[in-house]
Amino acid sequence: FDWWHDSNLQGYAPICLGLEDFYIRRLYLRIQDCFGRPISSAPDAFIDVVERYSNDNNKTLKRTTKITRCLNLGSYNYLGFAAADEYCTPRVIDTLNRFSASTCSTRVDGGTTTVHTKLEECVANFVGKPAAIVFGMGYATNSAILPVLIGKGGLIISDSLNHNSIVNGARGSGATIRVFQHNTPSHLEKVLREQIAEGQPRTHRPWKKIIVIVEGIYSMEGELCKLPEIVAICKKYKAYVYLDEAHSIGAVGKTGRGVCELLGVDTADVDIMMGTFTKSFGSCGGYIAGSKEVIQYLKYTCPAHLYATSISPPAAQQIISSIEVLLGEDGSSRGAQKLARIRENSNFFRSELQKMGFEVLGDNDSPVMPIMLYNPAKIPAFSRECLRQNVAVVTVAFPATPLLLARARICISASHTKEDLLKALE
Ligand code: PMP
Known about the structure:
By secondary structure, the protein is α/β, with parallel strands linked by helices. It contains 15 helices and 13 strands.
């Protein structure tokens, strides 16, 4: 289970590189064909998928295009904020008119607008931490922050199925990396016990610091993190907890505040709360929320804060406005309705698939639903048949999953209606 953390084979291309075999090349092209199509609409409940045709076997560049309107079961638009919204969109347009699409500056050189400071306050308040720092990209939040938080002499203990951005950040940090069996607290404890004696004070251990990294909802498994048990073990062994809530923030919990709210974990027990704005909030970028001291330290030292152009102001405004809707600050109950809807939709779709006999991974309340296909050869067939039926799905295979654990990954949205879901089931 530590193959994913050790391997250099983290892209799709190596499947065929160096293999001259004609049939393998053909297979690779066919697989690629299934997830490379451009979209010409917002990623809402329905999307316009652009299909390209070549009538003479790719021999010339003459191509025609056809646009197919499909039920969208692939985007991370959990709360439906990725489409035009009566509250968010006018505010995003006002911000675009006033601030433009880019600050053209780093955060420390004039790239901090009033929208950025408001966003950081708003995120800290929403996730339940004293302070927050935001970045223009979710992926870079993990990969740039980890090397600032820990380095040589430190120990990272990472869930075996953590996202590639965490793997890259962990590798770039220079810390020693140990991997624990996916979402298995007893194995985490075993790994910790191998490294330190229980109750040993932080100053008497062979490691400068220990960070345990987990995700709120695992994006390829749809599974909720066993956070209460993991937090208890980290407390016992005095290790820091780093929680990536890319897929859980906004999507789960009574008020959308993520897995801590859902599973009853005190946010004070999670040292670093990371998340992205690209799923539930329909925007882009990522955040780290933590104590005032940690956030101030990151603001002084993190190269991605000091040297990268700040997050686009309209994107920042989209996040602020969508959080306001979730908190009911727009004066409506739409936020609560969206949260109820994503829960109902996810639980309905999962249980119906299971009744039909599909093998579906993940837990109740999770909007991520992998349907196991196992054999990678089924990927093109499944994906094309869905497209033929005007349903867009994402299929995932090696190296993002082990070779024989290919799957279709369904993402449910609050903007799906019951009829949409029934159509997909049919
Ligand atoms: N963390 C996790 C767990 C993810 O699944 C992703 C991407 N889906 C990221 C980080 C990177 O976020 P982004 O796509 O917003 O850059």
